[in-house]
Specification:
single chain, about 375 residues, alpha/beta, TIM Barrel, 12 helices, about 30% helix
Amino acid sequence: MIKPEIIAFYLPQFHPFPENDNWWGKGFTEWTNVGKARKLFPGHYQPRIPADLGYYDLRLSLIYEQQVQLAQEAGVTAFCFYEYWFGGKRLMERPLVNMIERGVPDFPFCICWANHTWTNNNWNAAAQRVERKVLIEQTYPGIDDIDNHFYALLPAFSDKRYLRIDDRLVFVIYDYKSIPGNYTMLTRWNELARKNNLPEFYFMAYTADPREVKHPRYNVFDNVILSNINGAFGQGHSVKRLLKDVLINRFLHLPAHVVSYRKAIKKMLCSAFENEKVVPVVVPNWDHSPRLGTGGSIFHNSTPELFKRHLTDILLITRQKRVVQPMIFIKSWNEWGEGNYMEPDLRFGKQYIEACRQTIDAFDWTMDGTL
């Protein structure tokens, strides 16, 4: 079997930019939330403090080089940059643009268009207590915007480091079901790629719902990336369960959605992962209480050893697939505001990185499922 691509989602947020200064105050980054996080119950692992890289600023080129070095130590083969395009307005593009302009380090990357509206309660726990307000809306204006979006990313697509599968350019769309049915982005981008002497795209959709993967809307994609974090907390709660959650959250002022990581990695496993079109996501941890306070959902007591078990389970499923190139995504490399990262922290150091590498190196690849 061909070893899978191990692709880690990468958040390019950790630098100040004017819009965040306007919305949240001068100098705001995700570190603001991370630094303010507090324990919400006994044994809750907060705050989480970065170790080797510190509270970094992604405007510094050295940081990305160090991140790549750590990723390579972990066995990660590529980063997938979240990209934010709002009808002609780009946000948080500077780390990606800088990396492309520098031409180093020599490490594969691809892009995930994180196409969703930003509201005031996405990023800040205090905003949970005030009226919901749209900060910037995700829109789909039409063909001119589709073209402008492509050309904004053309330097990335033309970069020799840009990840290719089946000799095509990998591009992920985070929320395809919110895009209008007449939005011809996929076919148009393939036309523009050919026009610019590039290969066509290897389009991938992302979903957090196993029930979605067989929906006809995804037939136009090469793969569907499935993250089943919601499955760990239970989908389709009963009225009784929902009422209990409200009571816990509003009257006891505790997070209603807490599950042990040991249970979560079992609940996240689902038959949808066995679908050959589905690319599974592994999750080292999850805790977005730094963003949402008691409204956050939490995996409790994650350890590197349990992450090894989780990754092994997904590798076993992936090994059975008859596909051109097996893939696994890690969510994520550096989403500290969601407690969702592989980077070293003061409690575990580089143990998650070491666990990832050890699991990949020790895995038996002799069962050949590839085409």
